[in-house]
Amino acid sequence: MTLNPNETVLVHTRAQLEAARAGRIGDVAVVMTMGALHEGHQALFRAARQSAKTVVATIFVNPLQFGPNEDFDRYPRALEADLKLCQESEVDVVFAPTVDEVYPGGDPLVRIVPGPMGEVYEGAHRPGHFSGMLTIVNKLINLTAPDYVFFGQKDAQQLALVRRMVLDLNLPVEVVAVPTEREPDGMARSSRNRYLSAQERVSALALSRALFAGATQAAPDAIRDAVREVLAEAGRAQPPVVLDYLALVDPRDFTEIADPGYAGPAVLAVAAKVGATRLIDNLPLEIGG
Fold first, then answer.
1. Hey, which of 128, 130, 154, 260 would disulfide with 118, CB 3.0 to 4.6 Å?
2. Measuring CA to CA, how many Å separate 219 from each of 179, 254, 261?
3. 111 located within any domain
4. Above pLDDT 90, what percent of the chain?
5. What is the chain's percent helix, strand, coil content, to nearest 5?
6. Are 15 and 156 contained in the same domain?
């Protein structure tokens, strides 16, 4: 472990983390990741760098977030490349613990339960995922003791659940949302985009196009109709966009906005498959504002 203040410090244990932070003055911001870092993570690091004196990135592939049909062992791990990106992004400390370091008692018997917010949309598609996600976020907050934690708006339901956990459990940390990073053509940046063929990528552009069409409308029903119109056309394309869900929800509890006269914050979200690749995207809105 190096403690050169001009270099990114890599640590694997809680003791090493405390040593790496010793003597540093000022607020601490943490960006939690599972590695395989890309431009979207860099946006999180930049935002954290602007808000805090010390930036900590965590890299941990959390087994609790993987369901029975999801291959934990095949998840991409590229620590050397991730460290290079962290260095370029001026991250101060990278905390990359082992599973035993995070879960010293083995598979945890006590976990965070997301409740009804975690049972819909992405939670319905990936049962147990949000319980695993909230459990590791809670543990990493305890291990890193940050003033701020930064999350991307790309995973809107995850962001909403973390915010709710911090509120409901009185955790002493501020959750900061960072806007979704997009390609020049509007597609949200995601590690999953690499699995799309050239033709599939053209079809997949309908997701962001539908969201932006919905954002031009002023009322909930009109927003949904505008999105459905674009996605209906995309469903007839080759290859087709196969819709999983369209949601217009209150970000405070992720319940569907049913009141046609609703005014306030909202998240417009879609999930769909193009070929074998499942994609998600969303836009935060202010309805009636």
1. 130
2. 23, 18, 7
3. yes
4. 87
5. 40, 20, 40
6. yes
Q: Which domain range does residue 228 map to? A: 191-287
Q: Say how far apart CA 280 and CA 80 lie, in whole Å.
A: 28
Q: What is the pLDDT of residue 71?
A: 77
Residue 236: Cβ within 10 Å count: 8
Residue 6 confidence (pLDDT): 64
Is residue 4's pLDDT more than 60?
no
Do residues 24 and 111 both lie within one domain?
A: yes
Sign of the torsion formed by the C-alpha atoms of 117, 120, 123 and 128: positive
Q: Does pTM surpass 0.90? A: yes
At 3 the pLDDT is: 42
Q: Would you name the residues annotated as active-site residues?
A: 41
Question: What distances in angstroms separate CA 278 from CA 99, 195, 207, 214, one per listed residue?
Answer: 28, 10, 11, 21
Of 144, 178, 212, the one marking the end of a domain is: 178
- Please check whether residues 215 and 152 belong to one and the same domain: no
pLDDT tens per residue, range 26-57: 999 999 999 989 888 999 999 999 999 999 99
Residues 197 and 141 in one domain: no
